[in-house]
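Contributing new records

If you add data, match the layout below exactly. Sequence lines come first and carry their own label; structure lines follow with theirs. Keep one chain per record. Anything else will be rejected by the validation script.
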Amino acid sequence: MANSRSGDSVVDRIVRLISAFPQDVSTLQLSELAARAGLPLTTAHRLVRQLAEHDLLETAPGGMVRPGVRLWELVNRTSPTLALREAAMPFMEDIQQVLNQNVNLAVLDGWEALFVERLSRRGSVANRAQVAGRMPVHITSAGLALMAHQDKALQAQYLDQFSDPDGKVTVDALRGLLGETARQGFAQLKGVVDPDTWGIAVPVLNRRQRAVASLGVVVPLREMRLQALVPALQTAARGIARGLGDS
């Protein structure tokens, strides 16, 4: 029920408040949190206090606010990505053991790749993908692998609304990338997110041959073992799919 001048509901405001924490920041000043959520300070203060009573948020001296332990507990107890992560982890560990580089697992959420797991080691190349972090489909091999293996209607919706904020990728170029990825069975992007890295990803397919996830690696640009990397990733992706069934 809407009960604010803007017409948004209490649930709308709570979601905006919880979602206002940046990807790399776990603690914010109440005033900054309110500004990021687009809420009056008094409203934010009231909601934070109520959420803190349920341990969904925590408050600290100096007006600091951070997500609460119970929020983490509830999300991890009921998240649909739990089964995916459990099925994928043994395969991700095997790939990391061989490559000694970053391995990531992502799902498609809207027009973004949402990373649900990542393995990395000291000395591996930079990897901008973070657990619970998002990246636009068109700048990640994970995103391309996911979108290239969706149904045509969803792909058409994505391309119809596509606009590159940086003005570097056209719709026609993106359509070509998706077609190439679908034909090859894997996606590769060199030096897009980081100029010194190469992202390679394959889809995890269900029985209808639609991508439910993507499995990828981030390696140095000098890495030239594409003929070995891709089959290893595809074998692992099939193993993950078997572990998931057709859920």
